UniProtKB/TrEMBL annotation:
SUPFAM superfamilies: Protein kinase-like (PK-like). InterPro entries: Aminoglycoside_PTrfase, Kinase-like_dom_sf, Oxido-Kinase-like_Enzymes. This is Aminoglycoside phosphotransferase domain-containing protein. Coiled coil: none annotated. Residues 139-230 form the Aminoglycoside phosphotransferase domain. It comes from Fusarium odoratissimum (strain NRRL 54006).
Length: 303
């Protein structure tokens, strides 16, 4: 079965007018692909089934028609309180995705946008300003020790992106915060909103789910077990053999890129839409930054 991907832009038309022709060319190429339904079945992971996906290249309006997921499906948000088993399912699903498509030779793999290029496109529409402003605006949610190092955050974010680009790539979801998960009627975890799927290193998805899925208290109790399980599952599904220590080093570095998605969301530029509530942004920024502070992630860039 072909690896078929569709990417639908979340940005509005005004923002896209400010992007480069390279972004528009890459987006058009990707949007021509079909959505993730076919390979979600191939992987045997829980994801929405799409009947149709399309867009208008002039207005950049887009539509995705999904199969009815049922009234008993529970869509998560920042207030959802996951169990340890549900947290583990999230980690296992990502390991399966990352393992199966690790350094894939499938021709469609090469057609995916590279994570670094996605960030470069955001830089063109003011990512640095949005992230700096968002970090400052979220001061109340950020551990004081980390906030005191605010001048190091953006430079290390750029290092994080470069590091990601230098590592072997797989298919990454790219936006695995809790609001993009759902719980099926039988209690299993499903993953939706695949519009930022890309080629990148698995450690960013892993850092993202660890940093946003559960409260800081629960994460501290479960995170080491989850990373050990991820490493085992990644290898089981065709990925590389990495040590737990190696996994922790890379996910610490990638947490900066995770934070960037939420600081920009808290204080978007006038060219971008409001995508989340302030409460959701502060919740996730607080969780991510607490994980960063717990693991002294800025020290991971001394290489």
């Amino acid at each position: 079965m072909d690896l078929q991907i569709d990417v639908v832009s979340k940005s509005n038309g005004k923002a896209l007018e400010h992007t480069s022709s390279q972004l528009q060319s890459s987006a058009r190429q990707l949007i021509l692909q079909r959505i993730v339904s076919s390979w979600s079945q191939e992987l045997n992971i829980e994801a929405p089934w799409a009947y149709f996906a399309g867009y208008d290249p002039r207005s950049w309006a887009a539509i995705v028609v999904l199969k009815d997921m049922g009234q008993e499906t529970t869509f998560c948000n920042y207030k959802t309180d996951l169990t340890k088993a549900q947290f583990a399912e999230q980690v296992q699903m990502l390991a399966k995705l990352h393992g199966q498509y690790y350094q894939s030779q499938h021709p469609d793999f090469e057609r995916l946008l590279i994570y670094k290029d996605r960030i470069s496109n955001l830089i063109e529409v003011g990512l640095e300003t949005m992230c700096v402003n968002g970090f400052r605006a979220a001061k109340s949610a950020i551990p004081p020790r980390l906030f005191a190092k605010q001048n190091e955050i953006w430079p290390c974010t750029l290092k994080s992106v470069e590091r990601n680009a230098a590592l072997p790539a797989t298919v990454v979801h790219g936006d695995v915060h809790l609001g993009n998960w759902y719980i099926t009627p039988d209690g299993h975890m499903g993953l939706t909103d695949w519009q930022t799927v890309a080629r990148g290193h698995w450690s960013r998805d892993l850092a993202y789910v660890l940093g946003t899925a559960v409260s800081a208290e629960k994460r501290r109790q479960w995170e080491h077990e989850m990373v050990e399980m991820y490493v085992s599952e990644l290898r089981k599904h065709g990925g590389p053999s990495v040590t737990v220590e190696e996994a922790w080093l890379e996910l610490r570095r990638q947490s900066l890129g995770v934070l960037a998605y939420w600081t920009l969301t808290l204080t978007p530029s006038e060219n971008l839409p409001d995508m989340q509530t302030e409460e959701a942004c502060l919740c996730f920024i607080g969780r991510i930054c607490t994980m960063m502070d717990d693991h002294e992630v800025l020290d991971a860039f001394n290489f």
